[in-house]
């Protein structure tokens, strides 16, 4: 697999409706969106690859600071859609410019709509880096944990705890990258507070981290830190396929 390409950071207050998130001063956010999609009748992954290439060529001509991936469920309990479309911007202004250009491209929209129906859900979230890579990640593996804050714990305190737990995993040799996603716009009536998202460049890195976590003592160290701030459900795992890098031209 190509190396991961995801500087998915998110901004605290992009609009009046944006959910505020006050965290450590060194953290910088940016918008990220997710669309739940199904294939149109008779369409498949090969068609998705073709239209994704066409989208990348269009986006390159528009000179937008936008990175995108398709997320294909690998380990999951049944999600109700075929794949996800994940997009990210470096800041709120880039998000606004990108959306305006997309809304002014009906032909490109129609080409993609012939292959995929992404009307099931479209949400915006706030992402904060924990152990995030430089630049934007490409192909890889993503694990999404739904996490709920303990009573009386703030998002700021939870984020600080994840930074500490991330340092523990890094010190123990884990090659994972990670972020905190806080649902913001169109999240609906959810029963959790944020996603803890962990990424790997390849499954062998995931397997090595599993050994470190379950057999190398990392689980006890992480739980000692994170159990004080939140509880997380078992993750859903996606194969992430890069559609476009942010700095492509």
Summarize it.
With 249 residues, the chain is α+β, with helices and mostly antiparallel strands.
Helix content: 25-40%
Spans of 5+ residues with little confidence (pLDDT < 50)? 1-25
Number of strands: 9
Mean pLDDT: 87
Structural class: alpha+beta
Major sheet size, sense and barrel closure: 8 strands, antiparallel, barrel
* SSE succession: EHEEHHEEHEEHHEE
Order of strands, widest sheet: 1-3-2-9-5-7-6-4
**Tally of structural domains:** 1
CATH class: Alpha Beta
Measure the end-to-end span.
Answer: 22 Å
Q: Please give the count of helices.
A: 6
Named CATH topology: Alpha-Beta Plaits
As a percent range, the share of strand residues is: 25-35%
Quick one: overall form?
A: globular
- C-alpha-based Rg, rounded: 18 Å
| CATH architecture call | 2-Layer Sandwich
What would you say this structure looks like, in words?
- With 249 residues, this protein is an alpha+beta fold.
- The protein has a single domain, classed as 2-Layer Sandwich (Alpha-Beta Plaits), CATH 3.30.70.
- The protein has 6 helices and 9 strands; from the N terminus they run βαββααββαββααββ.
- It has an 8-stranded antiparallel β-barrel with strand order 1-3-2-9-5-7-6-4.
- α4 (155-171) packs antiparallel against α6 (218-226).
- Residues 1-25 have low confidence and may be disordered.
